[in-house]
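User: Okay, second chain of the day. Same drill as before: sequence in, structure tokens out.
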Amino acid sequence: MQIIRKIKTTDSDHISLKIPKAFMQRSLEIIIKPIDDIKMTSMCSEQWPKDFFSKTAGSFAATPLVRDEQGEYELRNSIR
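Assistant: Same drill. Structure tokens below.
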């Protein structure tokens, strides 16, 4: 069984969810549960290794990023 968990902060009375194609034409259970007791900082710290930012901060300082030429714009037929 595939389960999708999304944590969203709302600023309106609507929520939009994009579902995988495998879920289309199926009955879905949607549960909305407030999680005010969970701090966002604790969630972020679980997603990143403990010293990730200290190891990666300034990692491109000696080698600046360069954007290559983007080429010619593709001409397309107009929609009628």
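The chain has a mean pLDDT of 81.

User: Thanks, on to the next one.
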